[in-house]
Request: fold
Amino acid sequence: MGPINMAKDFNLLTQELSSTLGTMHKEMPEVMGAFSQLAKSASADGALDLKTKELIALAIGIACRCDGCIGFHTKKLVQTGASRDELQEMLGMAVFMGGGPSLMYAAEALNAFDQFSEKVASAA
Reply:
């Protein structure tokens, strides 16, 4: 595992966003419920498994430069057992498609992967 850049703490970022999203769910139940159902339906196994779908979601999060998306989808990739090699191949495609800005967010995704992997390893 490479060194962890702690410029962004993705564990903290996802915890804080989860709290805010919970508030939004209470205050906007129809919108948030519909979004949750969309996420559940889109993530369901079909021709593509969850890990593949999460790799796609993370690539889009990188291209869109969304820290929250990077945090949540990287965390899910660690939970699905994605390897660092799988992540790096996807990062290569994201950089290819998005150029320099995607390279910077690909580095953030690698940091997030290391942070979530370290958390899983320390819990074991």
Remarks:
- The chain has a mean pLDDT of 93.
- Helices lie at 10-27, 29-43, 50-63, 67-80, 84-123.
